[in-house]
Amino acid sequence: MAKVGIFGAGWVGLVTGVCFAELGHEVVVRDVVPEKIERLRRGEVPFHEAQVPDLLERNRERLTFTLDVDEVVDCEFLFVCVDTPPTYSGDADLSRVWRVVDELPELPGHPILVMKSTVPVGTGEKVRAGLDARGLDHVGYASNPEFLAEGHAVSDFMGPDRVVVGAFEAADTDAVASLYDGIDTPIVRTDVNSAEMIKLAANAFLMTRISFINEIANVCEATGADVVAVAAGVGLDSRLGPHFLRAGIGYGGSCFPKDSLALKQLASNSGYHFQLLSAVIEVNELQKRRVIGKLKRHLGSLHGKTVALLGLAFKPNTDDMREAPSIVLASRLLAEGADVRAWDPVADGGTLPRGVEIVPSVADAVRGADAAVIVTEWDELRGLASEETRTAMANPLIIDGRNLLDPAETRLAGFTYEGIGRQAFAGDPSPTPTP
Ligand code: UDX
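A: This is the predicted complex of the input protein with uridine-5'-diphosphate-xylopyranose.
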């Protein structure tokens, strides 16, 4: 078993840390924010992620949390798990990565610096040069990107589709790969640039699938097809597969929006205009706004109308609202003069624009509302089309941004219902395509 240092006690760093501890390694997690470290020492996890608290509790004697960079001195592996947010130019901000490199203490032996943060292709070569310039040429370097989705990150880590390791030396690749012994998965051994690109390309491909099915949904609306049936039929083609074909109001989160911008910028910095990725990003931005067109088609002007936004997190089972469609929708609705009420079972709505009323229950959100919009497909909303909701609303209109409810059942329950890319039925206003 190895001694593993982790720089960054954020979501990626903590998931990585508790999972390596679960695999039997000794783990030191180092962060620069005292409050974060104190909370972790008390056993508190500062975000909502299934299984992380259990793994933290179970592996306490193998986990150390520290502010002191010298505590990683005897680690054989030093994982970089810091944020790489976009800058104004669209490039990834690597300042936290460089801070880690700058702060590395004198390290004995042959430790390996392992990049888990998502970085532009070419970063490894620059960090290698930076290590050499600091006299740390005995420190190895490897890229080992994460493919963890929020909400099931621990199971993604413990049962991954693959582990990707790119290093400058074959022995370093083998050493990093050995950390995952005990996990039955293919190991992709490659060069550093390709490992960095695998992460960016995988995310870009997933986003492309989402924007593709969202555009198919929009054409379904205009032509009378049902995107849920279309996606099921398309996904059964073994060359295509069923994943990431759920039409909705667009992707959000801490990875996709940031990584797509970074890849687009990386391509453009290298003299290449990545047309397809640019379209994927634009389709997603427009998709977030389509609900407004749907609401207007049913309600006319939204001025003075009360709209309930149900679900604020960018997807269920997380409290993360980064780049969530709920933020765009709330801003657009306020700009249209609507009264906006918002509910989420976990996310606190702290990043919503001023003027949104955050309420503690679905019942509070829909009371007297002119429309309810399903923004996040929380399980709690599956029973939304109830008699209680219908009588509580001023106007029983449900816009289902995630195709969570059954259209026929919802209409039978007395609601006017519209999903994304689904047929409009008799009794609903004419299915004029929304812009
Ligand atoms: C993603 C990647 O899955 C993960 O491998 C990477 O490391 C980080 O980014 P995450 O952002 O946690 O993970 O969420 P994911 O479950 O992939 O969903 C991303 C977004 O796409 C969500 O907003 C989700 O609602 C949306 N989505 C996903 C769709 O709109 N349709 C789909 O079919 C799938």
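Residues 426-435 have pLDDT under 50 and may be disordered. The two ends are 57 Å apart (CA to CA).
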